[in-house]
Design a protein that fits this description.
The protein has about 260 residues and is of the alpha/beta class. Helices cover about 40% and strands about 25% of the residues. It contains nine helices and nine strands. Strand 4, helix 5 and strand 5 form a beta-alpha-beta unit. The longest helix is centred in the first third of the chain and has 17 residues.
Length: about 260
Amino acid sequence: MENKELEIGPSQLIRQRFSKAAESYEKEATVQRRIATTMNQLLQRELSPSVIRQVLEIGCGTGIFSRLLVRTFSPERMLLNDLCPEMKYNLQDLLNPQIRFQPGDAENYPFPDRYHLIASCSALQWFKDPGAFFTKAHSLLAPSGILAFSTFGKENMKEIAALTGQGLPYLSLREITGMLSPDYALIHASEEQITKTFPTAMEVLYHLKRTGVTGIQQQQWTKERLSRFCSEYNRIFNVDGSLPLTYHPIYIIAKKK
């Protein structure tokens, strides 16, 4: 990690790391792809494509979830948003006069209103104030519009948190549904845990780097710290020669009251 990363804020650091991982993300993000597939299947089960005409996707990244949404709903218009402007180059097969890309911080960007669906997959855990975003989304939705998203719960990457003492302030399913209850009627709420295994602790770290999810941690990986991390990861978590990394996705579909 370069020292200059220590001089920038969390949003800039997240943007920088996801931008660097854009090329490797498609291949490496197998869990995120599985989550996107599950989220899309839930939407197919709960919603009629005919009522989803205007779509806003938050945190579109390289477009894994975006392509599923386009195939499922064939929206009349769709706005793809991501913090990283560089993601536009990964979306060229999607973009046309009906599907546009708008970079920017979704918590602050002044989106036009009246969407039938605001969707997001594996992105809201990075937000400073998810509750404020839920309120903002409510104002952007058409009457009876849908807010649908996946995020991550408290057990997410628990192995990393146990060894480094660092992690995002993940919310529980109950906390999220509590935030939504004043303005939304829940259609679906569920969670699961997915375990991805690796042969070594170094492979765990490479996986995190290649998906950009090293997030807002700014500590330098000295040789000594790296050696200690790998040794402890293997000592504590090794199961029959494999090292686990836990993902804890939460799935929400809610209708605007």
